Each structure stands twice: as structure tokens, then as C-alpha cells.
Amino acid sequence: MMDFVLAFIGSFAGAILFNIERKNLIWAGICGGISWVVFKLFYIQTDRVVFSTFLAAFVCGVYSETMARKCKTPAFVFSIPGIYPLVPGITAYTTVRAIVEGRLIFAVNKGIETIGTAGAIAFGIMLASTVFQFVSKVNEGYKNKPKATS
């Protein structure tokens, strides 16, 4: 529960910095909280940072697309603050620190993890958006399909 609250506060504060409308601030904070909880649950189960980040970003993207349609606002209003808890800032810091300290093997490992995590965030959000667009096109096709007369 504490993880959700802290991720909510971080995403909520980030949403304020981006000047998001007041009516959407809570929803943006909830997106960050949900994405962090999903990350933690899958990380505990799998011990795989990149995979857990991908799943959390995908859930963030699905939530963002859903709320975008409900609130009639762009999805990035929710997805950008929603991924704040997932951004690998400490991993990037650790990479640079290891380089400065001369621990190059460790730095390479952490650097690859950082790049993988960032790519997983991008791919998760992109995949969710693509799935929503595909489903929308399919539904639109069924709605516009002429009815057969007998």
C-alpha cells in the first residue's frame, strides 16, 4: 500500500509540473501508482527488471488509453506521469558512478539494464497504444458494415 501511495505522489507531482488540468491530476497519479504496483508484483515473482518494467508500462498504456477515452483527453496526459516511477534513474546513476570508479564490467551490466528498461517502457506504452488503435479500427469496421437484407 505504501508503494502505491508513494508512486501516486510522485506521478501526481509530475503531473502538476506538466500543468495537467486539475480534473485529470488524480487519474494521472493513480496511473503511476498502478504501474508501480504492477512492476513490484512481477519483479517479486520473476526477479526480471526489464520484463517487469515492460508489463508495468503496458498496463500504464492500457490505463492511459482507457482514461483518455473516458476523460476525452490525450493519452499522454496519463501515460507520461504514469511512467515516472518506472524510469531507471537510479540505475543510470549507478552506471555513471561505476564508470567513474573504474568498475567497467559492472558499469556495462548496469548500462545494459538501463537501456533495456528504457526500451521496455517505450515498447510497453507503444504496444498498448497500437492494440487500442487496432481494436478501435476493427470496432469501427463492424459499426460501418452494411447490414444484410433478406
TrEMBL record:
Bilayer topology annotation: Multi-pass membrane protein
Subcellular location: Cell membrane
Biological process annotations from GO: succinate transport
Family the UniProt entry places it in: Belongs to the ThrE exporter (TC 2.A.79) family.
Domain of life: Bacteria
Record carries keyword Cell division: no
Species of origin: Thermobrachium celere DSM 8682
Keyword Heme among UniProt keywords: no
Organismal lineage: Bacteria, Bacillati, Bacillota, Clostridia, Eubacteriales
Keyword set, alphabetical order: Cell inner membrane, Cell membrane, Membrane, Transmembrane, Transmembrane helix
GO CC term (a single one): plasma membrane
UniProt domain Threonine/Serine exporter ThrE: residue ranges: 3-131
Signal peptide range in chain numbering: none
Pfam families recorded: ThrE_2 (PF12821)
Spans traversing the lipid bilayer: 25-43, 49-68, 75-95, 115-135
Protein name (database record): Threonine/Serine exporter ThrE domain-containing protein
